[in-house]
């Protein structure tokens, strides 16, 4: 198993992407520490992981709260013996569909504030332990890219680009301590679009038609790539993004 003996913290573990990543980590042998704001949904994820033979722990944590983030990371490192993988998958609260010339300031800056603050806080908390261990992997989710005509993403792409700047700086500073920092980039995951959303079909079509493979990345794809990135098989990879856009983003 790729992650046997590793302790992985997943923030936003109750979301669809968080569940996929947590399940993949547990399948590959990691002890997963599920963090989020809603205990009931975290317990559901943990129960499914345990039913499949994995090991999962839950904790109510607000990723916008520095004290809570630090205390949880300290507890994981102290009780489990290490903190080996950290990934932030919380929702950014973005507002899409409104042109930038018309969007209210608070709607524009909400995802930027949330993404940068939570990514910094969760990475900082993990880094303090990983530096001491001289090993560890910090994963981010998003990736910068060019917007397309007709896409009114508000502050979301700005938030992703800011996260990439943070990822580069973290990788540069933490590399000498044996800590790797990577971004998982998709071109959109149709499975996370609510079925009742009126424009679901149109958005799915726009995601798929941009790809070179004629399909979009799935939640399972994201989980599998995250497990690989966190494993020693990817030990030579840092300061970069893993392109899982099915060719929508050409490097």
TrEMBL record:
Alphabetically ordered keywords of this record: Oxidoreductase
GO terms for MF: oxidoreductase activity
InterPro entries tied to this protein: NAD(P)-bd_dom_sf, SDR_fam
Signal peptide per UniProt: none
A Pfam family: adh_short_C2
Domain of life according to the entry: Bacteria
SUPFAM superfamilies documented for this protein: NAD(P)-binding Rossmann-fold domains
Family from the record: Belongs to the short-chain dehydrogenases/reductases (SDR) family.
Protein name in UniProt: Enoyl-[acyl-carrier-protein] reductase (NADH)
């Amino acid at each position: 198993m790729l992650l046997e003996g590793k302790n992985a913290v997943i923030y936003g573990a109750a979301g669809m992407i968080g569940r996929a990543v947590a399940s993949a980590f547990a399948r590959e042998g990691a002890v997963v520490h599920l963090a989020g704001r809603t205990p009931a949904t975290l317990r559901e994820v943990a129960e499914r992981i345990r039913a499949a033979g994995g090991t999962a722990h839950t904790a109510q944590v607000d990723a916008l709260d520095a004290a809570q983030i630090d205390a949880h990371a300290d507890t994981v490192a102290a009780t489990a013996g290490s903190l080996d993988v950290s990934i932030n998958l919380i929702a950014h609260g973005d507002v899409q569909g409104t042109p930038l010339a018309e969007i209210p300031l608070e709607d524009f800056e909400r995802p930027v504030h949330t993404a940068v603050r939570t990514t910094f806080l969760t990475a900082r908390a993990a880094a303090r332990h990983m530096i001491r261990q001289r090993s560890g992997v910090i994963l981010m989710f998003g990736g910068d890219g060019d917007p397309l005509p007709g896409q009114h993403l508000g502050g979301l792409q700005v938030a992703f680009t800011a996260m990439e700047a943070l990822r580069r700086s973290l990788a540069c500073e933490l590399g000498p301590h044996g800590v790797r920092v990577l971004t998982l980039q998709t071109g959109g995951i149709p499975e996370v679009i609510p079925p009742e959303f009126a424009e679901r079909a149109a958005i799915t079509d726009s995601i798929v038609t941009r790809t070179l493979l004629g399909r979009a990345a799935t939640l399972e794809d994201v989980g599998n790539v995250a497990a690989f990135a966190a494993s020693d098989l990817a030990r030579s990879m840092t300061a970069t993004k893993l392109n899982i856009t099915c060719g929508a983003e050409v490097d």
